[in-house]
Design goal:
The chain is an alpha/beta fold. It has two domains: 108 residues, Rossmann fold, CATH 3.40.50; 168 residues, Glycogen Phosphorylase B (Rossmann fold), CATH 3.40.50.2000. 32% of the residues lie in helices and 19% in strands. Helix 5 packs across helix 7. The model has no long low-confidence stretch (mean pLDDT 92).
Length: 339
């Protein structure tokens, strides 16, 4: 089994952590199959499999087939939480093909998409499932509490980038190049501080004493204070998933530069969000640098104007559950797959 942090045991204190070879009759169990290949897993006739990533979906689909054959029963639907178009995480390769295959499974699937935008992307590429639901992001409750206290705080000349060098789809190198271009072409760049949050990395010197300072992974309290202080954000996601940081930044009164991707355009979500490019399919560091210069000039004219930006997402600041369809899924499972 994998090692678990103390917080894991605290958060799931009602569950038993068991090794794969154990066959324990206990209603709430967590079994890790990640670390060791070749492990076996006890499976009962009524078990339902829920996948949250393509590797778990690949395994769940095979377990559901085995379960059907072993217990001489119809194949139960698997629940597949689809959080991005995951084959694109890899170059054309074995992993690409295996991830793609989980969307072409011919047996019952209950798909839960992380946003309607992602669901629409799948439809554009001719992927569909027996049952489909989607949920929309809401502001983290800890951030929501801080927002009510920090709203209208004075903005300072800080640019906050969502900096995750190890995650290719967050286009960290693109952001770095855009900062270099902006610094070369904007005479007042020296008046600004550039911060990077999301993943720890060495501070990155640009030129003329301009340094991208790494904050690493922040606590919610630290993150809220940073959002409340910084005037401009840059957060890229080269995938159909919208990513949450642009929405968090915008609702904390920041002007935000992000990117379009096929059917995704986050400028439709909040007045403070600028999506690049315009009419073309691809965006460049020059596009980002140009927008950054315009936003810096806007902040110089009125540093707190971003706080009055209008949100077009009625649900985002709601405390209602984003999963009203759970009862529907329960009924599908209870009465059986009936398509």
């Amino acid at each position: 089994m994998q090692e678990h942090s103390p917080s894991t045991f605290t958060n799931y204190s009602q569950y038993k952590f068991v090794s794969p070879e154990e066959d324990i009759n206990y209603p709430r169990q967590i079994v890790s199959l990640v670390k060791n290949s070749g492990d076996s897993l006890p499976v009962g006739a009524e078990d339902i499999f829920i996948a949250t990533f393509w590797t778990t979906a690949h395994l769940a689909q095979r377990l559901a087939l085995w379960q059907s054959q072993e217990f001489n029963q119809p194949i139960k639907p698997i629940i597949y939480m689809i959080q991005d178009f995951e084959p694109a995480f890899y170059p054309w390769s074995s992993k690409y093909v295996l991830a793609l295959s989980t969307y072409e499974y011919e047996n019952p699937v209950i798909a839960i998409f992380n946003t309607k935008l992602l669901q629409e992307y799948f439809h554009l590429h001719n992927y569909a499932f027996d049952y489909e639901y989607s949920f929309e992001p809401t502001l983290n409750k800890a951030l929501l509490d801080k927002l009510s206290k920090l709203q209208s705080s004075g903005k300072v000349k800080q640019i906050l980038i969502y900096g995750r060098p190890s995650i290719a789809r967050n286009a960290f190198s693109m952001i770095l190049e855009s900062i270099r271009i902006w610094q070369e072409g904007f005479p007042e760049a020296g008046d600004w501080e550039v911060l990077s949050a999301g993943e720890s990395h060495p501070d990155i010197p640009i030129k003329d004493q301009l340094v991208i300072k790494s904050l690493g992974k922040l606590s919610m309290e630290e993150y809220a204070l940073t959002l409340a202080n910084a005037a401009i954000g840059i957060s890229l996601m080269v995938s159909p998933h919208p990513s949450y940081p642009p929405l968090e930044m915008a609702h904390f009164g920041m002007w935000v530069i992000t990117n379009n991707f096929e059917n995704k355009n986050l400028s439709l979500c909040h007045e403070n969000i600028i999506s690049v490019p315009g009419a073309s399919r691809c965006f460049s560091p020059e596009d980002i640098a140009s927008q950054l210069t315009l936003l810096c000039q806007r902040v110089t004219e009125d540093s707190n104007a971003g706080w009055s930006g209008k949100s077009y997402l009625d649900h985002y600041l709601s405390d209602q559950s984003p999963f009203p369809f759970v009862k529907d899924i329960y009924e599908i499972i209870k009465v059986g797959h009936t398509l």
